[in-house]
């Protein structure tokens, strides 16, 4: 078992031996279109599978649009280029990982990611936070390091299950002790390669260090802290530890839940009301 004292540079060396899916050429094509919305719509529409998936996502309850969108050009105009590209990246990430031999149940992994993303964006709308799209993207990307580490290490599922069973809630510590790297660091690398907004990439990197980020007065980015709190509430609502690691207790939430609720200004009763409202909006998670 590797020591927790391994340096950050060594962690980067370990990541250097792990497959990181490259950003697809479709994103490059879109970015070359600049502000030409018509050209962007044409590029996306040229792939029927991707365009249909985008329309399905934007019309889902997670986005809460009052008017249904029927085409990619309409989506680009109504939602804006940045929002559509974020949706595209989440779809293409899943597609790029389809052939990874990750030794985990990828269908379960993606279902849990979609659940967290949908709940996170709905939480934002319920709390009138203007970051629902960012929360959705974070929900889908935050655990993207799990499949690539599972493809690299044959015992990753076993270690992950043990990580979530730690009563101290230090999930990343167990992975680091075994592999010299953890899925949050791998996810951060993917987020940077895929050119996600910096705040989302930082949230991916720190999603198992939420208490440290909330306590750090030198971090003056309230969006980062709020996104992490929303993500943690969403994970707890969907019971992510049970879905990913067969852990019937969310030890991480037990450790940080009070601090998260304090930061967003919610009492325990407020949180229960919020969960009821999210369930009413989305139905079964």
Automatic annotation (TrEMBL):
Native source organism of the sequence: Aliikangiella coralliicola
TM region positions: none
Limits of the HDOD domain: 16-210
PROSITE patterns: HDOD (PS51833)
Name of the protein in question: HDOD domain-containing protein
Record Gene3D superfamilies: Hypothetical protein af1432
Matches recorded under Pfam families: HDOD (PF08668)
InterPro entries: HDOD (IPR013976), RNase_Y/CdgJ (IPR052340)
């Amino acid at each position: 078992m590797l020591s927790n004292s391994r340096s950050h540079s060594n962690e980067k060396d370990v990541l250097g031996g792990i497959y990181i899916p490259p950003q697809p050429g479709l994103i490059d094509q879109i970015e070359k279109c600049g502000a030409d919305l018509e050209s962007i719509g044409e590029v996306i529409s040229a792939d029927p599978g991707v365009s249909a998936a985008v329309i399905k996502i934007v019309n889902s309850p997670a986005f809460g649009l009052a008017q249904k969108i029927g085409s990619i050009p309409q989506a680009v105009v109504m939602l804006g280029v940045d929002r559509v590209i974020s949706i595209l990246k989440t779809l293409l990430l899943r597609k790029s990982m389809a052939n990874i031999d990750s030794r985990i149940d990828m269908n379960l992994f993606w279902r849990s990611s979609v659940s967290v993303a949908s709940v996170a964006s709905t939480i934002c709308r319920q709390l009138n936070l203007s970051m629902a799209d960012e929360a959705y993207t974070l929900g889908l990307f935050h655990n993207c390091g799990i499949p690539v580490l599972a493809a690299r290490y044959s015992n990753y599922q076993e270690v992950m299950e043990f990580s979530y069973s730690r009563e101290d809630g230090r999930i990343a510590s167990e992975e680091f002790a075994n592999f010299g790297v953890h899925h949050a660091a791998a996810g951060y690398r993917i987020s940077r390669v895929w050119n996600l907004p910096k705040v989302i990439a930082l949230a991916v990197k720190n999603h198992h260090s939420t208490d440290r980020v909330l306590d750090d007065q030198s971090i003056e980015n309230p969006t980062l802290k709020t996104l992490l709190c929303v993500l943690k509430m969403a994970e707890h609502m969907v019971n992510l530890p049970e879905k990913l690691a067969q852990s019937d207790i969310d030890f991480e939430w037990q450790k940080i839940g009070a601090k998260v609720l304090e930061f967003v200004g919610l009492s325990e009763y407020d949180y229960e009301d919020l969960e009821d409202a999210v369930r009413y909006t989305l139905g079964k998670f």
